[in-house]
Amino acid sequence: xxxxxxxxSRIPVVNPGDDLxxxxxxxxxxxxxxxxxxxxxxxxxxxxxxxxxxxxNLASVRPSQEAIDLAQKIAKDPRLTELIxxxxxxxxxxxxxxxxxxxxxxxxxxxxxxxHSNVGASNKSEQWVLLLPEDPDASARRLRERLExxxxxxxxxxxxxxxxxxxxxxxxxxxxxxxxxxxxxxxxGQTDLFGYTLEITQVGAADELASAASLVMGQAAEGxxxxxxxxxxxxxxxxxxxxxxxxxxEDLFR
Length: 254
Prior knowledge:
The chain is of the alpha+beta class. The protein folds into two domains: 4-51 and 137-233, CATH 3.30.1330.100; 56-129, CofE-like domain (CofE-like fold). Helices cover 26% and strands 25% of the residues. It has helices at residues 20-30, 45-51, 65-74, 78-86, 136-151, 205-217, and strands spanning 4-7, 40-44, 55-57, 88-95, 98-103, 108-110, 128-130, 156-165, 168-179, 185-186, 202-203, 226-230. The strands form four sheets. A five-stranded mixed sheet has the order 1-12-2-8-9. The protein has a three-stranded antiparallel sheet with strand order 4-5-6. The chain is globular, with a radius of gyration of 19 Å. The mean pLDDT is 92.
């Protein structure tokens, strides 16, 4: 098996309203990559959010009393705290500088995934922050449908972000939305090398691919927000992000 991940070169800085399909196709053409059946395009959340106009100027945010009170406890800007609360369904843990929340999309993360870094050349001020896409699955589906129309092949699209992890230091790439690929691959009922029947093994395939692509993208000023993937070892199928969410009644750490 060979899995090949190739960053698409020279994707320009993305601004609100930019057509990502055009930018991706131009990048594929520059790199002489022709899409084939089963290929996957992994896209950084930031350029999805930017193109969808999810940048917010903190100067426009009026914090609630709840946000003001919480911000005082954790030494955070109350305007940013207000946005975090708006993007979350519940607050799980707090400490100075950090809020751990259940995001409205269902996953647990720090600060509701809101980011100051690489918001954009025209938004250099720290007054600007970037929210996650409104509906990453829908964003992935729209990208996939248009890319398939242009290429006449069956593709997958994966949108990723960088999250911290319980029990381990450092961030890793994780899936936050996808279309045309499996989130989980159920191995239960299959046998291992010694004939033992697997009973609980489910592979988080979308997250595994997200982490691999994140290595190629980089985390700072690399400017590689799109990665072309060939050789994904599992059959493509229609998937949804919520298949990766552990139900709360099974979550021993809430």
